[in-house]
């Protein structure tokens, strides 16, 4: 057993969790590293990825273990033993290793947990959403999350709701600090092209009697909401 796998194993010792969760956690431990699939994960941990990626994998493992412990009653034991889940599992771990941005890291975490608890998302849709997380930038995901879940987003970012005033050009630089407004408009247009929002970037120059957060109401499409929900760890 490699030192990295020993460390992961020790971190998960002592957790009183149900068998479905143990099934997933055991995959993360060195005990299953002899299988081809888990051997690939072990290789990622020990041979190929730099220390920064290794730390992300370890953090991802700890967060996933914590999520599954909290949601253990919802975990679908039959589902997590399928090839479909194994595919999602590997892709999410690779995604977490390769992407340092919090938005992408959290999205892979959400996809993995939602896949384990048995969401209503079809396998083809899961793969589509998974590929989108790889394709979209962190900025795309951040914009969509702000528009889909503004209250939660602002709370997580430590931004008071009263700071979101005026029109899109006024409050987007506050909600997403440090990004050029023209870049945000371009990303906004991309999300419209993907069908995630039903308003194009012209909204940034459109006059409206409404101001602030109320302007976000109804602008995220059903597809956009489904995507963000699937990329977000569910509540207990």
TrEMBL record:
It comes from the Bacteria. It comes from Brumicola pallidula DSM 14239 = ACAM 615. This is Uncharacterized protein.
């Amino acid at each position: 057993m490699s030192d990295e796998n020993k460390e992961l194993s020790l971190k998960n010792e002592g957790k009183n969790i149900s068998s479905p969760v143990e099934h997933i956690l055991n995959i993360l431990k060195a005990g299953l590293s002899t299988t081809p699939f888990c051997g690939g994960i072990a290789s990622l941990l020990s041979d190929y990825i730099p220390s920064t990626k290794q730390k992300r994998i370890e953090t991802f493992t700890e967060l996933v273990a914590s999520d599954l412990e909290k949601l253990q009653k919802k975990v679908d034991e039959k589902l997590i033993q399928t090839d479909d889940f194994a595919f999602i599992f590997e892709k999410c771990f690779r995604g977490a290793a390769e992407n340092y941005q919090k938005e992408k890291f959290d999205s892979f975490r959400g996809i993995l947990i939602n896949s384990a608890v048995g969401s209503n998302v079809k396998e083809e849709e899961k793969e589509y959403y998974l590929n989108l997380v790889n394709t979209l930038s962190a900025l795309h995901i951040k914009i969509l999350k702000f528009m889909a879940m503004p209250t939660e987003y602002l709370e997580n970012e430590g931004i008071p709701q009263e700071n979101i005033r005026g029109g899109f050009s006024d409050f987007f630089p506050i909600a997403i600090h440090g990004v050029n407004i023209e870049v945000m408009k371009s990303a906004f247009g991309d999300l419209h092209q993907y069908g995630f929002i039903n308003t194009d970037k012209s909204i940034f120059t459109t006059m409206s009697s409404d101001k602030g957060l109320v302007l976000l109401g109804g602008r995220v499409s059903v597809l956009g909401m489904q995507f963000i929900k699937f990329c977000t760890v569910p509540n207990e």
